[in-house]
Sequence to fold (132 residues):
Amino acid sequence: MKVKFNSEALLSLVEDLEASSAPQEQAKPFLSLMRKMSQLSFQLQAAQSEQEKGEIYRNLMGHQLEFKAEFDKLCKQLGMTPQQVCEYVENPRNFAQHEWERMQQMRRRVEEAAGGRSKRSAKASQRRLASL
Fold:
């Protein structure tokens, strides 16, 4: 079982986001789950037995489900569908230029943490998230 993202890059991103002035109350559950998932990925890489790897992997999947539930909750609070949220954050006209540039920097860091996935796979991920 191989972890498909750079755990150190993800943890660094989470720490930077937590330390920035940007996180609002709505973002805190996502950051907490991202931190837990990055820590579990380190444990998964260090795990010796298949049983231990399986346990950690199940834990990771549980956090992934929690992440989706938090996203659904956020969408409901915003009165938007997941697809609408994805479309909103993809439109630079919805943000001041400095906000958009910062978001693009963060996106590049997330892509780096995800192992350099292409824009095509990022779009596919967004469609999957929106369709859940």
